[in-house]
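User: Predict the full complex structure for these chains.
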Amino acid sequence: MSAATTPARTGAGAAKPGGAGRTALRALQIVLLPILLIGLWWAASIASGVYYLPTPGEIAATFVEVWGSQRLADDVLPSVGRLFGGFALGTVGGVGLGIVLGLSSRIRAVLEPVLEFFRAIPPPVLVPLLMLFVGVNTTMKLAVIVSGCIWPILLNTIEGVRAVDPVLIDTCRCYGIRGRRWLTTLVLRSASPQIMAGMRQGLSIAIILMVISEMFASSSGLGYTIIQFQRTFAIPEMWSGILLLGLLGFLLSVLFGFAERKVLKWYNGVRAAARGE
Amino acid sequence: MLDVTGLQKIYPGQHGDVEALRDLTFHLGDGELACLVGPSGCGKTTLLKCIAGLMRPTSGSVELAGEQVTGPPRDMAVVFQEYGRSLFPWLRVRDNVELPLKEKRLSKARRRELSDEALDAVGLLKSAGAYPWQLSGGMQQRVAIARAIAYEPRVLLMDEPFAAVDAQTRADLEDLIRTLWKRFSMTVLFVTHDIDEAVYLGQRVLVMSSSPTIIQDDVAIDLPDERDQISTRGEHRFAELRTRIYAEIRNASQPQEAGKQQAAAAE
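Assistant: Here is the predicted structure of the two-chain assembly.
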């Protein structure tokens, strides 16, 4: 905030000295605890000798055998596809409805009590109902995923839209910025930090509901397969399915974080500038 | 160019209505640079919002080049006090300047030409690719000024634009405004609470009373056209004008303390 001659700060992400050593240390920090936990499990499973607790070695071998084959195409990919489909629909619906509700206090006053009611219904109880109405098919599974993941996205979008800076709103009015450009440049970008926070929550809910939607009366999918393994006492196979779900969630979270950093680069910059970095 | 006639603004409130502006009438000629000063809480921002078409007055009218202002007019640009909040933090400096031009449906080449000229005029052409939050406060306000100039307005409104920058930057920006005003031959209405700034910048100073507000005085600033931060401010005439306006504002803010507090609460 000093004199106007202050040079512009360089962008974030400038290379720090000693990069290689830092990367190695960070990698060690990441793998240290997993290695420790796997070691503990190994020791426990050998020591106990319980049938339900196979060693990590067995699970790993089964993992490759079970999921490396036809099941990847038959069960895993369709599940992941439905997950993305449901999440995308939930995002479009949540952001779209959130913008309408965020902009209009009248519509908000009418819809909010009803929305609070629907939000309170746990999505899994909708599964039998949806099976009756739409049958056991992709539509039903998508509906279950959407019915859960839309809420955090919707509520966060409403908050974000309501928090658009009044000075920016006046600026847009003065310069005649309206319509589509107003929506995309002002409203959506302003609300993007909250929208991304909502999507992050929505994504984890979507993964849970993807599995649940396949547990009832289904004949394929990741959730169905794991349930089948449990019912047939295929214990290492069951564990490998749980492992696969964990890995899937982890991977999606990493990918989401990557996208989030791209979209919210400006937001992190503003916050860093406000902290005086 | 700009005619304000009998402007009145009453804010309805829970404890009775608050009359922020009572009866404001003034005229700005084409190409004039006028400053508007008044005690704090006198409704400067209310007046500016009414002129900018952002707020409807209770009664009275604002006319720009003979046309009644009912919404933000196309020929008017506004520079707000809160520079940090009036720029889009997700757009680079050049995109901030060009955004209103896109809405004007200008060609890409023409937009580029206008933004180059405006950024060059405020000395920020080199920072065109930076984000606003990477710049200092004074530089951010320069971007907001560049955006206003690139819009090619006939009237430029400025709402206490330098209230939040440090003294040295402020002096530089004051000189910048004089330079830009001459170069782009706009009509400028500059709102400030700083009497020295008003006298230094303006050809005319309109003095507002405390709330409920009227135009208390209209002072012609008969200082030489070439102004200099050191010599102009050292002139005897500068001191005289400053003293005159200062005395009027002090008189204006004394008798109606209660009204002033009400207006401050309403703002």
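The longest strand of chain B covers residues 18-28.
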